[in-house]
Design goal:
Length: 201
């Protein structure tokens, strides 16, 4: 069973890193050192030994640090992928929100027109209701006033009739007093007495 590292083209290969670091070390060696090494054959062996020791040191470091470095790279790669996925989701959400805002802005004039029309209809209905209420109140007040006038008119007629009757009685009494003499009063009294006596028998 082959490991997954052999199938992964980006798997960590320590020999590649070692070779790359060795080449880098040779590339970074100053030109004066190489010239001095070429000029003095007895001094080149220590330089090669130092370079070899440095390459061994690099190889040992790579051998012991390859797992943490590989784990760090895998973790970092996973974090980057997750960040990219999160960014894509946030972009999709922002795009959806922007589309929703644009849709609402596009429908805003129609909503304002509908609200304006509804407000005009409500105002007209309220004015009609107020006019109807005022009309009904006016009719009620007119009916109440008419009843009060009729009642006061009846009271005034009754009072006027009573006053006219009193005046008529007073006028008749005055006329009777002026037109009847004492002899007439005696005759009326005798006639009344005779009538009472006749009714008593």
């Amino acid at each position: 069973m082959t490991s997954s590292r052999s199938h992964n083209p980006t798997a960590f290969r320590p020999w590649i890193v070692t070779a790359a670091l060795t080449l880098a070390v040779f590339a970074l060696v100053p030109a004066e050192v190489l010239a001095a090494a070429e000029g003095e054959h007895e001094g080149i062996l220590p330089t090669i030994a130092k370079l070899f020791n440095f390459a061994v040191l690099v190889g040992v470091l790579v051998y012991f640090l390859r797992a943490p470095i590989a784990e760090y790279l895998r973790t970092r790669s996973t974090q980057i992928r997750e960040a990219l996925v999160t960014a894509a989701e946030m972009r999709r959400a922002a795009t959806a929100q922007l589309e929703e805002i644009q849709r609402r802005l596009a429908s805003l004039p129609a909503e304002l027109e509908a609200l304006k029309k509804r407000g005009a209809e409500d105002t007209a209905a309220e004015e009609a209701r107020v006019a109807e209420t005022a009309k009904a109140e006016r009719a009620r007040l007119l009916e109440q006033t008419r009843r009060e006038i009729d009642m006061r008119l009846r009271v005034a007629r009754r009072e006027l009739t009573e006053h006219a009757a009193q005046l008529a009685v007073q006028v008749a009494e005055d006329r009777i007093r002026r037109s009847i003499t004492p002899d007439d009063q005696i005759r009326l009294l005798d006639r009344y007495t005779a009538q009472i006596s006749k009714e008593a028998r």
